[in-house]
Amino acid sequence: MGQLRKRGNVWWIRYYRSGRRIEESAETGKWEVARDLLRDREGEISKGVPITPHSIKLTFDDAVKDVQADYTANGKRSKGELDRRIKLHLTPYFGGRRLSSITTADLRAFVARRLEAEAAAGEINRELAIVRRAFRLAVESDRYHGRVPKFPMLRERNVRTGFFDDAMVAAVRAKLAPALRPVVAFAYITGWRVQSEILPLEWRQVDRKAGEVRLEPGTTKNQVGRVFPFTNALRELLDGLWREHEALEKAGTICPYVFQRRGRRIKTFRKAWANACEATGQPGRIPHDLRRSAVRNMERAGLSRSVAMQLTGHKTEAVYRRYAITSEGDLREGAERLNEAAGTKRGDNRANANADANTRREIS
Prior knowledge:
By secondary structure, the protein is mainly alpha-helical.
């Protein structure tokens, strides 16, 4: 049978495995929490879960380092965002604690604190996912043999509603500097990601003879390569940018980037974008709205979803649920089928009305 003992202000638990006595700090001054930890340990022993001093002493700080190493090894671009979340939010709350002491109640308390700080549900879920990943990697590497708590993930309301039409895009472009206008036009046509796919684009990725733009495997968010054949509008846009490129070369400036300003790559234009949207009465819009708009334009043009997904680089149809995109052609076809089923196809109403009038005359 296990025992609870208090040393100073901290409760310790004592239990036995294969006749060997194990003592572990519950790292709490609350008897109820220590009791629950003891019950967890006894339950793990009864299930044959191995418990070692190393797995008991593994701290959150050591476990989360494995997550950071995993991101580095896999070349994930969100490594900086991971480090930011760990430093600003996770370490201040879980730092220094043993992994075995983190319970579902602790995770709920963390969620409550972040909600009080007005953090978005999506942001909190990304932080919880880091903690969950730390547990999984510790288990996979055989560094941890304890229980893994249940993670109280929040429901995200991530239906996207920001769309542009031709007139709205033209208005925003008119308020931007000439060097930035092609970026917006390219994004509106292709639906590619502005920051990671469009701004770093180089001329070696543009095959003007074959009439296509390429993204190499490993350079996109999902690591899959992509090809976008020229449309008439895209060819006209890139031809104009190529003439600027040739003019720079003649002047002695060699710039490999498609989108440049005075021979230098455009790295970001967030401030200019925000000002242009504000000036056109569209505050709060983000460049990613251009990606959503391009997907919707493809749907309206009658492209199949499989083709649209290959052009824009979406791996699953979940984007359509998030973007609330529905093919208007499909809706019209559905309405026509309802008409057919009810016998009220276009023109039937007038025919039915004439038949009713003739019937009334015959009766009279």
